[in-house]
Automatic annotation (TrEMBL):
Keywords: Membrane, Transmembrane, Transmembrane helix. InterPro entries: MFS_dom, MFS_trans_sf, PucC, PucC-rel. This is BCD family chlorophyll transporter-like MFS transporter. Residues 5-417 form the Major facilitator superfamily (MFS) profile domain. It comes from the Bacteria. The keyword Transmembrane helix applies. GO terms for cellular component: membrane. Its main location: membrane. PROSITE patterns: MFS. It is a multi-pass membrane protein. Gene3D superfamilies: MFS general substrate transporter like domains (1.20.1250.20). GO terms for molecular function: transmembrane transporter activity. Belongs to the PucC family.
Length: 429
């Protein structure tokens, strides 16, 4: 028995909870550290890079879920760890106001927990989807669950932004407690009982993890797609830690307005994902390769617009440009995710979790690298030029990476397979 549509939506609620907690660290807490507490942007950049670096353990979590089964246990336990990390991260920001070193120590611990929680819960969830979803539903399942994650990010950012003004530390902790506690409860209710009703568990495989990892890495498709994920996701995440500070330092946004800007951006991502999902699954229009390329090139153009607005000093609004950027980001992301879901089921059987873990690790490393690179570059450039051109130069660098990603997609993603089958890669095994 495979997952029903209702069960797929229920698992999508877990993705929604993951996004809801993580967005607090990349938008609200990041903005508070840089603007309200006047800390260098590289500090939240390092913390976020640390939690992404912890996610290099994703292949190990995926392998354990392949060989031990009981993915529900990993999903719920991971969400609890993530919630504790999210609450601790908010407390760490407030500690910076009284003791830098105490705030830093708590933040390092909290972001480490965030990385472990996302790795354990997210990888096990995707592995469950890959093993228990009927092949003809995988593309739609990928679209549904990731749309729900983006919806969680957008709704959380918009709602938190609306309630956070006027900002007070007590209000921040109250809001974070509601978000993190609610995520744990909703995750447990959403995932409970699903795994027992579907064909998703594997017989224990006593092969050591490193042997299983080498087995997957030996697959040429897996290797090439890993490289593509790293390059494209580096471009995707490079603006993640600098957009809210950019809005505050250059456009004068309040903490609530900056958080709402993040929500608007992810609303654009949601719309882009819907367009690709409907076009490929319902209208049968366009190959995944073309959607990936269009998303990358559109993202590059939108980043150029975002960079220009700060330098023109013409009083033009930032939010529409950010929504357009999110829209093209969503087009690219859902097409890449659909390909990832399909490829997870190729090669040696019972290694879906390991493959998803490998690509999840590549994405996490790229996210940490891209976010840290963007933050560090802004810090360095602000020492030698005004804020607007410093941020603008980093945005334009990100645009170049998106163009390179489009070129790579043109060369490696097969456009001959129907879009509903989620195209793979051209090179053979």
């Amino acid at each position: 028995m495979t997952l029903s549509w209702l069960q797929i939506v229920r698992l999508g609620l877990v993705q929604m909870c993951l996004g809801a907690i993580v967005v607090l660290t990349t938008s609200t807490l990041n903005r508070l550290m840089v603007v309200e507490y006047a800390l260098p942007a590289v500090l939240p950049g390092l913390l976020v890079a640390f939690h992404y670096g912890i996610q290099i353990t994703r292949p190990s979590w995926g392998f354990m879920s392949d060989t031990k089964g009981q993915r529900t246990r990993f999903i719920i336990a991971g969400m609890i760890i993530l919630a504790l990390g999210g609450y601790g991260a908010a407390a760490g920001v407030l500690l910076f106001g009284t003791s830098f070193w105490a705030g830093l120590a708590l933040s390092i611990l909290a972001y480490g927990l965030i990385g472990l929680g996302v790795a354990a819960s997210g990888t096990s969830l995707l592995a469950l989807l890959a093993t228990a979803t009927a092949p003809e539903r995988r593309g739609a399942a990928a679209t549904i669950t990731w749309l729900m994650m983006i919806a969680g990010i957008a709704i959380t950012a918009g709602t938190v932004g609306a309630f956070l003004d006027p900002y007070t530390p007590a209000l921040l902790m109250k809001i974070v407690a509601i978000v993190t506690g609610g995520a744990v409860v909703l995750t447990a209710l959403a995932v409970w009982g699903i795994e027992r009703r579907v064909v998703a568990q594997r017989e224990p495989d006593e092969m050591p993890f490193l042997d299983g990892f080498r087995e997957v890495w030996a697959e040429r498709r897996a290797r090439i797609f890993t490289l593509f994920v790293f390059l494209s996701m580096s471009a995707y995440f490079m603006q993640e830690l600098i957009l809210e500070p950019y809005s505050g330092l250059v456009f004068g946004y309040t903490p609530g307005q900056s958080t709402q800007l993040s929500g608007a951006q992810n609303g654009g991502v949601f719309l882009g994902m819907v367009l690709v999902g409907v076009s490929t699954s319902v209208l049968r229009f366009g190959s995944l390769r073309n959607w990936v390329i269009a998303g990358c090139l559109g993202s590059a153009a939108a980043l150029g617009l975002v960079a220009s607005l700060g330098n023109l000093d013409a009083g033009l609004p930032l939010m529409p440009a950010v929504v357009v950027m999110g829209f093209f980001n969503g087009m690219f992301a859902v097409a890449a995710i659909g390909t990832m879901m399909a490829l997870a089921g190729e090669g040696r059987d019972a290694r879906e979790g390991t493959r998803m873990g490998l690509w999840g690790a590549a994405q996490a490393i790229a996210a940490g690298f891209g976010g840290l690179l963007g933050a560090a570059a802004v810090d360095g450039l602000r020492q030698i030029m005004e804020d607007a051109p410093a941020f603008g130069l980093v945005f334009m660098t990100e645009a170049v990476l998106f163009v390179l990603s489009a070129w790579m997609a043109l060369r490696i993603i097969d456009s001959n397979k129907p879009s509903t089958e989620n195209a793979g890669l051209v090179p053979g095994e």
